[in-house]
């Protein structure tokens, strides 16, 4: 299924809204994604969002990269326009990795470059560490194998809480307040990235994600967290391609000490820090987009 949706500005090319059918132990579900650039381009950049966000966070970056890439921005299952899972316990990285493998197969490409913000970075790390991974280059936006407990608690305090808004603007402002560490965004920029997070319901507005994603998040034990972290460190060490770790200067999720360990543990790991922001840089600003372009494409649009 394909449809054209309007871009946030007239200067941007319009993305295509598409869907792919995926499977879980509980049955079938649909993963939505927006696609930018030439649909026949085998050079694909996959952009995967954070825990409660959507693929539309990447509209501006995707438009900027669509001259070189076919840019694909999925809504991870349970978010955005994607289906909700029948069994909430399956909201986990292994299911998300399986969905992304299905999506990549749909795209008819052997390799992808990966831009992962927060949860999207965890999914990318897990997939990058598998034998015969399709990932060629990996950008990790403010996330690593070790997550600082203070940030995990902060996220858990709001995740899945029932909220309802009388107007769309109230919902936009609420989402902006939760994401204020993204940086000093303008009201128009908050509207641009937060409007897709909301849907009308019975005369009001609600967040467009399954609140039950909070259940497996809250159920993670200390032992399970340690095992998951160890697996991600192994994945990072196993990945053969270039990795760029981006950290927000004031991030409470990714510490400088963890970034140091990532640079030491990986094979081709570099780092940058974005001043004046926390978790996680929004990549709406031109200098942030330019930093990502330097990593993925190089100093010129013709770089390989």
Q: How would you describe this structure to a colleague?
A:
This protein has one domain (2-296): Alpha/Beta hydrolase fold, catalytic domain (Rossmann fold). Helices cover 34% and strands 21% of the residues. The two termini are 32 Å apart. The protein is of the alpha/beta class and 304 residues long. The strands form two sheets. The protein has a nine-stranded mixed beta sheet with strand order 1-2-3-5-4-6-7-10-11, sandwiched between helices. The longest helix is centred in the last third of the chain and has 17 residues, at 222-238.
Helix content: 25-40%
Radius of gyration equals 18 Å
Compute the number of structural domains.
Answer: 1
What is the fold named in CATH at topology level? Answer: Rossmann fold
Uncertain segments: 4-10
Summed over residues and divided by their number, the pLDDT gives a mean of 93
Largest sheet: 9 strands, mixed
SSE ordering: EEEEHEHEHEHHHEEHHEHEH
Q: Identify the CATH class.
A: Alpha Beta
CATH superfamily: Alpha/Beta hydrolase fold, catalytic domain
Number of alpha- plus pi-helical segments: 10
* Assembly state: single chain
Strand content: 15-25%
Strands, total number: 11
Shape: globular
Q: Classify the secondary structure makeup into a structural class.
A: alpha/beta
Q: For the largest beta sheet, what order do the strands appear in spatially?
A: 1-2-3-5-4-6-7-10-11
Which CATH-level-2 architecture? 3-Layer(aba) Sandwich
Distance between the termini: 32 Å
